[in-house]
Amino acid sequence: MRPLAIITGVGPGTGSALVRRFHEGGYQVAMLARSESRLAELEKELPNAFAAPCDVADAGALHSALNAIESRAGVPKVVVHNAVGGAFANFLDVAPEVLQQNFQVNVMALMHLARWAAPRMTDAGGALIVTGNTSALRGRAKFAGFAPTKAAQRILAESIAREMGPKGVHVAYLVIDAVIDVPWAREAFKDARDDFFIQPAAIAAEVFHLAHQPRDAWSFLAEVRRFHEPW
Question: Considering the entire predicted model, what is its pTM?
Answer without folding.
Answer: 0.95
